[in-house]
Amino acid sequence: MLHIYSAGEKRITAADCSGDRLPPGAVWLDLVDPTKAEEAFAERVTGAAIPTRDEAVEIEPSSRQYRDGDAVTVIASIVAGLSDNAPQLTPVSFVLTPRHLVTVRYAEPKVFEVFGAHVERSKEVCADATMTLLHLLEAIVDRMADVLEHAGEEMDQVSRQTFRRGPRQQQRMTNAALEVLLRRIGSVQDVVSKSRMSGVSVARLLSFLGTTLDPKGTKEQLDGLAKDVAALTDHASYLGGNVTFLLDAALGLINIEQNAIIKIFSVAAVIFMPPTLVASIYGMNFKHMPELDFTYGYPMALGLMVCSAVLPYLFFKGRGWL
Fold first, then answer.
1. With contact defined as beta carbons under 8 Å apart, do 95 and 73 qualify?
2. Taking the model in full, what pTM does it have?
3. Which of the residues 91, 105, 251, 260 has an alpha carbon 20 to 30 A from that of 274?
4. What's the per-residue H, E or C state across 187-213?
């Protein structure tokens, strides 16, 4: 799918890519999971080579950042799928020519939808190709900050649920609650780790653009974005450390719960062992047993069993083992 944006105008979704002309004033070409025909059309109208999907997933810096004549091509990994709780890193190619910006992506990060709507409302955002790229990168960085902020809030909720439980709440967590806790921690870790990887990728992109683009009017904005990305990457590392701590704490709670269950069974076995011994003794079928003719033999046996069960219980209670 090919979306064509012009400054302050509603986007055009190109259905016919057989021609070789763009609408007047077109600045940004956004290719979403493009076909061969759409890629060929973008190459014809811009005069720049469009990276294929296989080229976009290359990890070598020289394959993700290069200049080909007047066109500058950079590739970054962006987090997508957050709305569906299925975060994934997807490569996004940015091809900047003197007149046009081409983006090629194979997923639909929310930031592109939001930025596209902003372009339709404001002429300044899409005044030229370079400014469109800078504003798009700024929107990506802002989205990254929002994602990390949401992850931090989720971690605070998990921490509150784990360590700051109120007096009216059950002090012991059920197995289902612990399973939900582990799933939430895993979900936060997935988002934080992918956001950090995305931040590293964007930082490399900004560093390359800073040495490639015309410094007039772009240096300050690129430097500001680079500082923001560096701060967000550090924050993602901090959140990653907190997630590790929460995971260790959750596993510790599970061990405590398991130890408590084993302790209950162990104490129950010790408490019921003496009554079982008494019952076994008086269950033997010997002919000569003095207590068989004793009038109070049955109440005495019951009393022995009760006492032999209560005394260990009181002993364990006094030692604080229960």
1. yes
2. 0.76
3. 260
4. HHHHHHHHHHHHHHHHHHHHHHHHHHC
